[in-house]
């Protein structure tokens, strides 16, 4: 049986549901929301880095270049590799080096 949990993006106040077998990023896309940029979807590019403020989750493999062990323990993870185990509250804030990019495929609206 797949559980479904509520995801809350705290910066914009967006909410959507996520099944426990979907990643946070996949659930956002399925819900038609745009609060996290989409990149490789495989844990390698780092575009979808979020900060989980509350809730329980498990993680798939992520590039250590973008998420080291200390960051992971603090809830700074890649949305494409996060699977909820409870309702989650998270924040997405662009990394300073990405804030000025003009690549529309990765733009968050």
Number of domains: 1
Can you tell me the CATH topology?
Answer: Ubiquitin-like (UB roll)
The rough form would be described as globular
Largest sheet: 5 strands, mixed
Mean pLDDT: 87
Radius of gyration: 13 Å
Class by helix and strand content?
A: mainly beta
Indicate the CATH architecture: Roll
Counting DSSP E segments of at least 2 residues, the number of strands comes to: 7
SSE string, helices as H and strands as E: EEHEEHEEE
Unreliable parts: 97-109
- Distance between the first and last residues' Cα: 33 Å
Helix proportion: 10-25%
CATH C-level class is Alpha Beta
Q: Numbering strands along the chain, what is their spatial order in the largest sheet?
A: 2-1-7-3-5
Q: What's the CATH superfamily, by name?
A: Beta-grasp domain
Measured by DSSP, the beta-strand proportion falls in 25-35%
InterPro entries: 2Fe-2S_ferredoxin-like_sf, 2Fe-2S_ferredoxin-type, 2Fe2S_fd_BS, Beta-grasp_dom_sf
Organism: Halopseudomonas pachastrellae
Pfam family, one: Fer2
Domain 2Fe-2S ferredoxin-type: 1-96
General description of the model:
The protein has 109 residues and is mainly beta. The chain has one domain (4-93): Beta-grasp domain (Ubiquitin-like (UB roll), Roll), CATH 3.10.20.30. The protein has two helices and seven strands, in the order E-E-H-E-E-H-E-E-E. It has helices spanning 24-30, 69-73, and strands spanning 4-9, 14-19, 49-54, 57-59, 76-78, 82-84, 88-91. The strands form two sheets. It has a five-stranded mixed sheet with strand order 2-1-7-3-5. Strand 1 (4-9) and strand 2 (14-19) form a beta hairpin. It comes from Halopseudomonas pachastrellae. GO terms for molecular function: 2 iron, 2 sulfur cluster binding. This is 2Fe-2S ferredoxin-type domain-containing protein. Residues 1-96 form the 2Fe-2S ferredoxin-type domain.
């Amino acid at each position: 049986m797949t559980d479904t949990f509520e995801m809350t993006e705290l910066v914009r106040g967006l909410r959507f549901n996520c099944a426990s077998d979907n990643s946070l990023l996949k659930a956002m896309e399925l819900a038609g929301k745009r609060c996290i940029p989409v990149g490789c979807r495989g844990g390698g590019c780092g575009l979808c880095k979020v900060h989980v403020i509350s809730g329980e989750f498990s993680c798939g493999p992520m590039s250590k270049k973008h998420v080291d062990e200390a960051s992971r323990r603090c809830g700074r993870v890649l949305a494409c590799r996060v699977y909820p185990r409870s309702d989650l509250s998270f924040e997405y804030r662009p990394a300073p080096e990405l804030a000025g990019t003009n690549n529309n495929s990765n733009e968050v609206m």
